[in-house]
Amino acid sequence: RRYITQESNKLETGKSRVPTTVTNAVSWRSEGVKYKKNEVFIDVIESVNLLVSANGSVLLSEVVGTIKLKVFLSGMPELRLGLNDRVLFELTGRECRRLGSGTAPGWGGDTSPSPRPPPTPSLPPQGARTS
Compositionally biased, Pro residues: which spans (predicted)? Predict the structure, then answer.
């Protein structure tokens, strides 16, 4: 066998495409998605943790919360969620959210997450609502 040759092989892939990371395209969202009503449902779930000593002094206090969104918006609009910039929060969960640049007053650069809807295997029929 000859391992060193002057011939080359090219993998035929059809059309060449720019990676979606460059174009910022959303591969899981079909074009032309329409709902009868544009709706956003927001669930805020908070838990208060408090540790008090026997003499009544507060040893530990914290509020832990999660925000869950269910979004039924036609097309591909950008949805921004404004939060109090004095609140420390950590974004965890789906990778479909990003932090906004904050152009409007009150929209801090790193404190205005811009959530995007999660990937769905199939879209519900037009105007359908799931719970």
Answer: 114-124
Tens digits of pLDDT across the chain (131 residues): 566 677 777 777 666 666 666 666 666 667 778 889 999 999 989 999 999 999 999 999 888 888 888 888 888 787 777 777 666 555 555 544 444 444 444 444 444 555 555 544 444 454 555 44
Kindly report the number of other CB atoms within 10 A of residue 128's CB atom.
10
- Spatial separation of the C-alpha atoms in residues 19 and 128, rounded to whole Å: 32
Phi, psi of 72 (to 5 degrees): -125, 75
Which one-letter DSSP state was computed for residue 110?
A: T
- Half-sphere exposure at residue 55, Cβ-oriented, CA atoms within 13 angstroms: 2
Name the burial class of residue 86, with classes exposed (0-12), middle (13-18) and buried (19+) by CB atoms within 10 angstroms of its CB.
exposed
Q: Write down the CATH number for the domain with range 31-114.
A: 2.60.40.1170
